[in-house]
Design a protein that fits this description.
Order of helices and strands: HHHHHHHHHH
Helix content: over 70%
Largest sheet: none
Oligomer: single chain
Number of strands: 0
Number of helices: 10
Distance between the termini: 155 Å
Length: 257
């Protein structure tokens, strides 16, 4: 076999092997990015000209994220933000639009304390997508409502609060150990290990107030109904007494005949 033919076969084999390795590497990269970014991967692919461009974008987000000084919150910081969030939810009952605006501010403050830059919304979304892709759509939807909050319905504002809460809780518990996550879950549901109750979210507070109002209304209605029945019984007893009183003279008179 001529030497040139051997060289050609080797070159072709190397090229084929290189192509196979490249394809396998790209497939592994695609699966890794899909697993990490979830729905954000499909969204980025739809926004870019090609899957390759989307993968480069997401890989660049990962590179930038590694350069950030992302740090977990201390226990005291988590408690502080939990109290702030409870106050925002309490405000929603009477001032829903203002509460949504404050919810956005609390989230921005929380991001900054975790080490995320907050100079622009689009960059915030890109930075959050690396570790918080599962709650990113909630942030997008809540932010969109917050931008038009003055013209949003109460139901839209309530939905935005729920979505903001989802993102806040994700940022509060990310980096916490299992015991701290459990404690946060207990506090969200109105319990802690010290025996004190804590409000979990605005829906619980709102529902409780509504329940109290309904119970008060039912109590008033029951008292009114009871009073009406007492009056009717009193009238019935009075009529019966008068009937008996009018019947007794006739009995005595008939007996005397």
């Amino acid at each position: 076999m001529p030497t040139w033919l051997i060289v050609l076969i080797v070159v072709v084999a190397v090229a084929v092997l290189g192509a196979v390795i490249w394809l396998v590497t790209q497939e592994m990269q695609r699966k890794r990015l899909q697993q990490r970014f979830g729905p954000e991967y499909d969204r980025t692919v739809a926004e870019k000209d090609s899957p390759r461009a989307a993968q480069r974008e997401l890989a660049e987000r990962e590179r930038r994220h590694k350069e950030l000084d992302i740090r977990p919150l201390s226990a005291s910081a988590r408690e502080r933000y939990a109290r702030e969030w409870a106050q925002v939810q309490e405000k929603f009952v009477d001032q829903p639009s203002a509460a949504v605006a404050e919810a956005d501010q609390v989230l921005n403050s929380l991001m900054a304390e975790r080490g995320y830059p907050t100079e622009g919304y689009e960059q915030q979304v890109a930075d959050l997508s690396v570790r918080h892709a599962k709650t990113l759509e909630n942030y997008r939807a809540a932010h969109a409502t917050q931008q038009k909050r003055d013209g949003a319905s109460t139901e839209d504002l309530r939905d935005a609060m729920v979505r903001y809460r989802t993102v806040v809780e994700d940022l509060l518990t990310d980096g916490a150990d299992d015991d701290e996550r459990h404690d946060h879950h207990d506090r969200r549901n109105g319990h802690d290990h010290s025996g004190h109750d804590h409000s979990g979210h605005d829906h619980d507070r709102t529902e409780q107030r509504a329940t109290d109002r309904r119970d008060t209304g039912r109590d008033d209605s029951n008292r009114h109904e009871t009073g009406r029945h007492d009056t009717e019984r009193h009238e019935t007893d009075r009529h019966e007494t008068e009937r008996q009183a009018s019947a007794n003279p006739r009995t005595e008179w008939n007996g005397g005949r």
